Amino acid sequence: MWSAEPDVDLFDERGRLIRAAQESKTIAYYAGIDVTYPGFAEALDPHYAIGISTTLQTSLAGTIRAHILEINDIHEGFKATICSQESNLATRVRDEDYRIKVFSGREEFVEFSPTTEAHRHEKWMQRHEPPRPAPETQYLSALPTSEHRWSAPTEDLFTGTGLTVTFGSDLGETMHRCEEWGRSIEPDVPDRGSELIISPTPPETLPAYPGW
């Protein structure tokens, strides 16, 4: 579920790119880069992609809330600060209970910068590497059901922009602003640090907004 500051449009080209990139990053870590949104794998900075370790035996349940705090122009591209509040998101590993990490808010940024020839060459080399064997996975049974499903774009929002996507964190003034925003969503979170809750039932899955 997305929200944004008054001067940020969730529906314009930048807003859509930011949302698609951030959601694709989550998918990459929990399901693999190859099943992210159309065009994302090719647009992702290869240096960042190398560091993604996919958690194939973990499933997610519940709701992530995200907020675009600001968008700034940078050298022919732009950089967006994103706050996330994941106190209503749970992970389940194999057949264990749901693990919910309750905390205020997290700050991240997604940066869109002009694609360089070096990045094009690295992507070409990656596409022409011998295919690696698929990792063995253990799929979970009896996952929770909800009337609300993951909403995803069917069109390629990345190809043709001439931009490479990467992610990071500033941990400065924007981090504190994100923590304040997170507490406005979940006022009962710990003042400092986080709290781990183990539950036999998952948190509620709310409808995606604005969706695709």
Fold blueprint:
Blueprint: E1 2-4, H1 13-30, H2 40-43, H3 46-50, E2 58-62, E3 65-74, E4 77-85, E5 89-93, E6 98-102, E7 106-114, H4 117-127, E8 163-168, H5 173-185, E9 195-199
What does this molecule look like?
The chain has 212 residues and is α+β, with helices and mostly antiparallel strands. It has one domain. The protein has five helices and nine strands. Strands 1-3-4-7-8 form a five-stranded mixed β-sheet, sandwiched between helices. A four-stranded antiparallel β-sheet has the order 2-5-6-9, with no helix packed on it. It is globular, with a radius of gyration of 18 Å. About 6% of the residues have low confidence.
Helix content: 10-25%
Low-confidence blocks of residues: 131-143
SS summary, helix count: 5
The first-to-last residue Cα distance is: 12 Å
Count of separate structural domains: 1
Main β-sheet description: 5 strands, mixed
Number of strands: 9
Region (Disordered): 184-212
Biased composition (Basic and acidic residues): 184-194
Tag the structure with descriptive keywords.
212 residues; alpha+beta; five-stranded mixed sheet; four-stranded antiparallel sheet; 5 helices; 9 strands; 27% strand
A few lines on this structure:
Helix content is 24%, strand content 27%. With 212 residues, the chain is of the alpha+beta class.
